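stage 2 :: seqdesign
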């Protein structure tokens, strides 16, 4: 939430000046203005008045996450799948072996969970790398919800 403060400093002053101070909590705007009636809370005939305007910041939602999966086939070697997991998903030898066994026995395995753009890039990289090395390894992405 941010608050804006405006102050009517003098009746006969025509100039308007603003200075903004921003912190992680609030935003303050100080101003001078021309005279009474310039601000909603100023009294007729008085030389000063204060108007406070509340500005709401929209709630930010966490971006949706996507699971990147590797799929089993009859031709891609386990060594190649382990290489892919270490190279593109930064898995340790042990983690890569466990995921590879899951791919082999269950038909697919979770390589990682990422934002949409990163997941899409990882899928493309895996497929391109597999094709360049003569393997039909399939990689897909799906919402991780």
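stage 2 :: out
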């Amino acid at each position: 939430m941010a608050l804006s403060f405006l102050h009517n400093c003098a009746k006969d002053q025509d100039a308007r000046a603003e200075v903004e101070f921003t912190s992680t909590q609030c935003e303050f705007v100080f101003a001078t203005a021309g005279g009474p009636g310039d601000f909603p809370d100023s009294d007729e005939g008085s030389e000063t008045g204060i108007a406070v305007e509340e500005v709401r910041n929209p709630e930010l939602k966490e971006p949706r996450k996507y699971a990147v999966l590797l799929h089993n086939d009859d031709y891609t070697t386990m060594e190649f799948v382990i290489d892919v997991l270490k190279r593109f998903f930064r898995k340790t030898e042990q983690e890569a072996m466990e995921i590879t066994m899951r791919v082999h026995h269950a038909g697919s395995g979770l390589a990682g969970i990422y934002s949409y753009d990163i997941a899409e890039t990882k899928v493309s990289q895996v497929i391109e790398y597999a094709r360049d090395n003569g393997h039909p390894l399939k990689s897909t992405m799906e919402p991780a919800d």
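stage 3 :: structure notes
- Confidence is low (pLDDT under 50) at residues 1-31.
- The domain at 65-143 is CATH 3.30.1390.10 (Ribosomal Protein L30; Chain: A,).
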